């Protein structure tokens, strides 16, 4: 692929890198001192690009990054245009178009890329060919650009990267990974390719395996854990909910506040703190029955259980995650448990359903 003259000017020379640190998938891991540095100078705010920024996580992370680093230093992008004007620069762009992505990175002097563009688990099973294209080729473009332009790359992974043969309780960072969904397969590919580019070329690649993420700020987006958001809206709107998972299905979950906190910590962590490139991120686990019980302490709620194709997906995932390495290496800790998360979700969502009061 031909490179523009602007990109050639920023190309880093290849370097052979020694081995020394813990790696999830390869015994050969790059020396921390040999990681190709990003182009951010000491004391200078990084210039950050977020792909897939109109999704659940991207919109919230953009607010945090802009508050810390300045509106003009955070460029958001997506394949669709925002419903309301962005509070900072926004670019309509397709991550599958390498030339457009490179022009954006060069023109805006990007240092860090947060790559959220992806098709999630349930949608991926309905559109597997599209999921393969977006999730694999999209990331390949990003990591190739990171190699050329010395970028720091954060791309989330997922509990969907595990499979039915993975130990389901306290699943460790390093274990069997045999996912049964297209989404999970593409995320394992992303983890391995990111580690390869780190080991081979010194790319500053970072990833967290997210559990289900619960947020009051956006509607569900096609994931298997989305019932844990949808149930709040139905509880406040109608007092009734039909769940697509069985009442005993236990999955790892996390409140958006903690997901954003962990992402910021991982994105900003000094390289010397990172003993591996991919970490589990955990907070708490629950079943549909347990979250319904907590919600009933605040508002009436009737729940019917009618499992669909997403039940098989959930059954292949861990019931809980072991994130000891994240807590030890870069001092990760979560703030919310099930009880406090439910209380805050209901408080935030009541403004959309003012007729509903407490029991």
UniProtKB/TrEMBL annotation:
Domain NAD-dependent epimerase/dehydratase, chain residue ranges per copy: 48-282
InterPro entries attached to this UniProt entry: Epimerase_deHydtase, NAD(P)-bd_dom_sf, NAD(P)_epim/dehydratase
Pathway per the UniProt entry: Amino-acid degradation; L-threonine degradation via oxydo-reductase pathway; glycine from L-threonine: step 1/2
GO terms of molecular function: L-threonine 3-dehydrogenase activity
EC numbers on record: 1.1.1.103
Top enzyme class: oxidoreductase
Taxonomy, superkingdom: Eukaryota
A Pfam family the protein falls into: Epimerase
SUPFAM superfamilies, per the entry: NAD(P)-binding Rossmann-fold domains (SSF51735)
Any single GO BP term: L-threonine catabolic process
Catalytic activity, reaction form: L-threonine + NAD(+) = (2S)-2-amino-3-oxobutanoate + NADH + H(+)
Protein purpose: Catalyzes the NAD(+)-dependent oxidation of L-threonine to 2-amino-3-ketobutyrate, mediating L-threonine catabolism.
Similarity comment: family membership: Belongs to the NAD(P)-dependent epimerase/dehydratase family.
Protein name stated in the entry: L-threonine 3-dehydrogenase, mitochondrial
UniProt lineage: Eukaryota, Filasterea, Capsaspora
């Amino acid at each position: 692929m031909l490179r523009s003259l602007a990109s050639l000017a920023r190309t880093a020379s290849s370097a052979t890198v020694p081995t020394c640190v813990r790696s999830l998938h390869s015994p050969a891991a790059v020396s921390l001192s040999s990681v190709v540095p990003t182009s951010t100078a000491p004391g200078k705010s990084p210039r950050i690009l977020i792909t897939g920024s109109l999704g659940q996580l991207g919109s919230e992370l953009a607010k945090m990054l802009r508050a810390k680093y300045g509106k003009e230093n955070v460029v958001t992008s997506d394949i669709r245009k925002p419903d309301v004007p962005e509070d900072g620069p926004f670019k309509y762009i397709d991550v599958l178009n390498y030339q457009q992505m490179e022009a954006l990175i060069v023109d805006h002097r990007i240092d860090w890329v947060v790559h959220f563009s992806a098709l999630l688990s349930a949608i991926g099973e309905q559109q597997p060919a599209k999921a393969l294209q977006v999730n694999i080729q999209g990331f390949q473009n990003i990591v190739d650009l990171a190699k050329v332009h010395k970028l720091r790359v954060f791309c989330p992974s997922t509990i969907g990267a595990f499979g039915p043969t993975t130990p389901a309780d306290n699943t460790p960072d390093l274990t069997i990974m045999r996912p049964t969904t297209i989404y999970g397969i593409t995320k394992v590919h992303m983890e391995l390719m990111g580690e390869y580019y780190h080991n081979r070329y010194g790319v500053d690649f970072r990833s967290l395996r997210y559990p289900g993420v619960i947020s009051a700020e956006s509607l569900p987006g096609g994931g298997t854990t989305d019932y844990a958001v949808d149930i709040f809206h139905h509880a406040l709107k109608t007092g009734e909910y039909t769940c697509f998972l069985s009442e005993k299905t236990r999955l790892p979950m996390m409140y958006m506040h903690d997901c954003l906190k962990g992402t910021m910590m991982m994105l900003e962590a000094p390289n010397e703190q990172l003993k591996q490139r991919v970490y589990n991120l955990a907070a708490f686990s629950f079943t549909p029955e347990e979250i319904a019980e907590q919600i009933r302490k605040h508002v009436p709620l009737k729940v019917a259980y009618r499992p669909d194709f997403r039940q098989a997906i959930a059954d292949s995932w861990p019931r809980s995650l072991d994130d000891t390495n994240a807590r030890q290496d870069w001092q990760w800790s979560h703030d919310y448990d099930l009880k406090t998360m439910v209380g805050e979700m209901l408080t935030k969502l009541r403004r959309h359903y003012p007729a509903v009061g407490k029991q």
